[in-house]
Amino acid sequence: ASLSGLKNISAGIYGEKRYMLNELSFYTAAFSLPTRSGNFGLKGGYYGSADYNETNAGLAYARKLGSKIDIGVQFNYYGIKVAGYGKAATINAEAGIIMHLTERLNAGIHVFNPAGGKFGKNGDEKLPFVYTAGLGYEASAQFFASMEIEKEEDLPVNVKTVLQYRVLKQLFVRGGVSSAIPSFWMGCGFGFKSLRIDATASYHPQLGVTPGLLLIFNFSKQKDDTTE
Questions:
Q1: Sign of the CA dihedral running 169, 160, 5, 46
Q2: With b meaning 16 or more CB within 10 Å and e meaning fewer, what string describes 106-143?
Q3: CA separation for the pair 75, 43 (Å, rounded)
């Protein structure tokens, strides 16, 4: 649903090395195209290595319903490949809504895979059903806080909190914690004209550190806004 808020054509790429292991590398890229009838987006991702990998591609559409509600939907293709065992694929959908309760307080709901996309001819494996609800509060132009509750099928509830502070107009820092498997992450971002660079690092108490890097490019000049 947040896709509906973009005003310019933009593209981004993100990569991370989970727990510093090459076999768990993750990459994703996205492209957005605003139009008068709503905004469109394309997304692709790759996770894993030559021995085991997951790929995905998605097509999204979002628009504003007046000034108080934003909605969005995305259709995805997921593929899994295991060396020596072949590959399987499925399709699924997800949808989200953002409600602007006040000028500073927003609420959102996201539902992933409600129909239960299944892999293979027998459908023995399936993508999990995940739903998320959250609140975001912009206390000022410098400070933002959010909290979300995530429930994935067959897993305990996960509560995530995030705090973000803009140190300078072009520089901000953020941090967050997750409750399901107690872990925390932090990051910083820098914006210069049409380019934005984010660096992040998360820490798992047993598995270690996961570094990540995000690049976003806006093809048209717009007012600098790095607050999420």
A1: positive
A2: bebebbbbeeebbbeeeeeebbebbbbebebebeeeee
A3: 10
| Max CA distance (Å), the chain | 55
Match 């989200």 to its residue by tokens: 96
Distance (Å, whole) CA 108 – CA 132: 8
What is the C-alpha to C-alpha distance for residues 124 and 97, in angstroms, rounded to an integer?
31
CB atoms within 10 A of CB 39: 23
217 and 192 in contact (C-beta within 8 Å)? no
pLDDT tens for 181-218 read: 788 999 999 998 899 999 999 998 888 999 999 999 99
Please report, rounded to a whole number, the percentage of residues in the chain having pLDDT higher than 90: 77
Helix boundaries (H) for the chain: none
